[in-house]
Amino acid sequence: MEEKKFKSLKEFYPYYLTEHKNTTSRILHFIGTGLVVLIFLTGFLFHNWHFFLAMPIVGYGFAWVGHYFFEKNKPATFKYPGYSFASDFILFYDLLTGKQPFSVKKA
After folding, report:
1. pLDDT band for position 3 (50/70/90)?
2. What is the C-alpha separation between 31 and 18, in angstroms, rounded?
């Protein structure tokens, strides 16, 4: 089976959502991305680059726990790092504003 090649973030995001259907995983992604934003702001405000080193560990740590233990799939980061990174922040915003629910109804 040939792997899908996405041409845009707009085209990728619906696929990204199919890989993030578990409630606990979505909560972990939300926490991880929220902490990344806070860590970035803290590092920037206090001019301390050490905070920036923690960003990928915290962000990906929460997300990957969600994938391995709850979604039971491989993170999209491994195949689509740029689109996946951007989609993490889009999902964070969508969850924050209620555009996406934390709990996805099963079909």
Report:
1. low
2. 19
